[in-house]
């Protein structure tokens, strides 16, 4: 195999795939990138067996072929070279010689036939959505997914394609984030899938915000096609809990507040939260929210924010980070906090089809 490619194009394509490799101690070939040079195109694939990612880039192919090379070492070598054409030649023993100007590297690879095959595409449910829309939906929900290995069913993001809309949900049992977007898809394509958190992270890195992305869902896995980049991921087998039952059907009080002012007040107050007590008290009174945090024997913090509210006083305790997370993810100038009392779940809403349910803390 022999091909010539511009250094920056090679580096950019490698950058898109290098994050998906298995950890040390796994099969050695899972540390490699599969490289295929055919026609006028170079294809590169990496996998950790749960997620696979493939990128393609134009190049000049002098001798067609395929191999696998250590992806981290290859990427670092390319990064060190001067900008311009790079010549790569791989012999029958899968040893690669990489030359650019006066620089020359040699890397030992492994035969491409030992590399795991990508899932075979067959009959699938197909959806198309703007990259920017999908990226924003993930940004508004993914932070609420569980990181607890003992709650595996919550270690992912639910994507529900039903009723001519995509509903995306993430929860860790203490909070829940939900966002919806109207979509067109076939009635036969209605389904729920749970995307593993690692796939969510890779998507957030890869989505450029320009153009559409095509989703193809088959039994057990999903494929995201971004044009020159394709991501394959296994889907979680665990059934997602009935999230609707934790969303309050109604709330008595609606409090409107400037999002940025609330975020700043919570950030200042959170300085006083200690490891053993991540709690901040919110006191809602007519026209004013008082935010307080205290660390025993150390100090306390207090801030006040104007609000649109004329009801009775409500005091409620929250983990401040859990309140700040959705405020960072949405862009509205104003949000509403919907409450019944100081012991029931709160619901944060804004102008888009988004809601965030948060359980209050109970400290004895």
Largest sheet: 12 strands, antiparallel
Please estimate the helix content: 10-25%
List low-confidence stretches. none
Instruction: State the shape.
Output: elongated
Question: Helix and strand layout, with pairings?
Answer:
Blueprint: E1 2-6, H1 7-15, E2 32-38, E3 41-47, E4 51-58, E5 60-63, E6 65-70, H2 71-80, E7 85-90, E8 95-100, E9 103-108, E10 125-130, H3 131-141, E11 156-162, E12 165-171, E13 175-182, E14 191-196, H4 197-206, E15 212-218, E16 221-225, E17 229-234, E18 253-258, H5 259-269, E19 280-285, E20 288-295, E21 299-308, E22 314-318, H6 320-329, E23 334-339, E24 346-349, E25 354-358
Helix pairs in contact: 1-2, 5-6
Q: Could you characterize the architecture of this molecule?
A:
- The chain has helices at residues 7-15, 71-80, 131-141, 197-206, 259-269, 320-329; strands spanning 2-6, 32-38, 41-47, 51-58, 60-63, 65-70, 85-90, 95-100, 103-108, 125-130, 156-162, 165-171, 175-182, 191-196, 212-218, 221-225, 229-234, 253-258, 280-285, 288-295, 299-308, 314-318, 334-339, 346-349, 354-358.
- By secondary structure, the chain is an alpha+beta fold.
- The strands form three sheets. A twelve-stranded antiparallel β-sheet has the order 14-11-12-13-25-24-23-18-21-20-19-22. An eight-stranded antiparallel β-sheet has the order 6-2-3-4-17-16-15-10.
Please name the defining characteristics of this protein.
single chain, 364 residues, alpha+beta, 8-stranded antiparallel beta sheet, 6 helices, elongated
